[in-house]
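Need tokens for this chain, all 339 residues.
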Amino acid sequence: MPISSPPTSDETGDHPLTRTEFQIIRTVTKHPCTLWEVLSAVDGPIRETYRACEVLKQRGWLVFRKGRIHPGKLPRRLVQACQIDFSMVLEKLRALLEAAPPPTTEYFQEPMLPEDLCRRLEFMWERGDLFDRTFFVIGDDDLFSLAAALTGLPRQIVVGEIDLRLVGYIKEQASRLRLPVEAFQYNVADPLPASFRRAFDVFVMDPVETVPGFTAWLSRGLAALRHPGAIYFGLTELECPPKYWHRFQQLLNEAGLVITDILRGFTRYQNASLAPPDKWNKTKLVQQAPFPALQEEQNFWYRSSFLRAETLKSPKVPVRGRVKFDRSFYQSPFTMTLS
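Here are the structure tokens for all 339 residues:
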């Protein structure tokens, strides 16, 4: 499948915006700002913000009058990108999820609540990682790809998904809604197709929480990521102990990335894949419980933190070849929700 070329001048007026430039524009389109309001709204060093302001001034996209920074003449699509209604995205996502294939433990699927997925999207937008970016997603039972595309902001989204039901559904809905989303069947244990290497700006995953599994997920994503780039992923503390977090942090450091954000307990999950009693009763979660684990009393207790990391250089890929796909890939001594 084709990987998009950089945006043309018709789309952004000059060249792809940096995250900092987008955050500045988004800030001043809300209302005229002081310099201090711009600095407080932008992520990054003051020097980088000043440099971005100079670039935007030269393009005529920022003007200073009456003691305030105002937007200049902006490309129409950029103005629209600063005014996204995520509630409309949520409404459409709910309808897509209702018709989607049900989750299965065969592929370790457990969709998050749609409102929390939209919160993730809004956070990416705030961080400047949504507008005009290309995305690579591994595993998409949440339909992140379709939700992100419904904002109208990403340039292209490619999904690698092992479940053929989801591959077909995502492709069908993307075609029906004319969204820039492609999906193909992909097992993360296999090397990334060569055409995808260094082709994307943002990588998104909710990996299995084992060292072999996380390493494979991260490796495929980093192989796809170019610099500068960002990755987003979820991790729990329920089945992922501190020593695993430490190992994952080491992998990121060694690859040339830095963690910039950890949003604790940011994402809740539906707990739908364990709904059949035969599956529920076979889990360690139930069998080892010190008190009755009554399924009907569940709230949205299964949560993950949402993490962002960004590249400091072209990322070093931990593993390039095929990895062994056995029980240790998807289960650890801390896994409690699988039988």
